Amino acid sequence: MSDLTLSAIALACGKAIGQMDTAQQTVVKCRETANDNAIALFNKKAVTGTYKKDGTGCALCTAFVDGGVAEGKTLSTMQKTYLPAFKQVVKTGKALSDWNLQRNKPKSGKANAAKGKKEFADKLATVYRDEDFAGFIEDLQQGYEDAQFDTLAEGIKSYLEASGIKLKD
User: Fold this and answer.
1) Nearest residue to 85 via CA among 74, 73, 94
2) In CA terms, which of 7, 19, 60, 141 is 20 to 30 Å from 117?
3) What's the pLDDT tens digit per position in 15-50?
4) Which candidate, 46, 58, 61, places its Cα nearest to that of 93?
5) How far apart are CA 157 and CA 167, in angstroms?
6) Cβ within 8 Å of residue 51, ≥6 positions away
7) Contacts 24+ apart (CB under 8 A), 58-64
8) Domain residues of the chain, as ranges?
9) What is the pTM for the complete model shown?
């Protein structure tokens, strides 16, 4: 490869970082606007009600969902993911750092779940001490960085299934 080609690749990398930074700044501004507007509704003592797809429900909830759909979000995502956050901010007047409340939900009902943090930590310590653990973690990290899977949990699941272990979903 010539130096010119390598320089072009480096230039593209730098541009991508610049675009990423700009996009992150836009996200912060949009989050602030959403929080400010929902807090303004709180300050005006607005009350949210029940959203109905046919438009006969709460006017505030309908307007909120319609606004997100108009910007390209799916009706389902606006309704199930973002509407509860909107209602929460309007009710409490407290800004959110993450409007996707589903990311913060604890996972429940897992089969064979550890009885407590200590029991889970003991199981994890046993795996950590295994001589193959370091290699497994390196492979997992590399697979994640190479976008072979979206989450580390997907990578672990893939490894277990490739090893012949059947998992319940």
Assistant:
1) 94
2) 141
3) 998 899 889 899 999 999 999 999 999 999 999 999
4) 46
5) 8
6) 57, 58, 61, 62, 65, 79, 83
7) 60/90, 61/86, 61/87
8) 3-104, 117-162
9) 0.57
Question: Mind listing the pLDDT tens digit for each residue in 96-105?
Answer: 988 888 776 6
Q: Is 32 helix (H, G, I), strand (E, B) or coil?
A: helix
**CB-based contacts of 153-157 (< 8 A; 24+ apart in sequence):** none
Measure the CA–CA gap between 98 and 30, rounded to whole angstroms: 11
Determine the straight-line distance between the first and last CA of the chain, rounded to whole angstroms.
Answer: 47
Tokens of 133: 């653990």
Locus of tokens 């509860």: 84
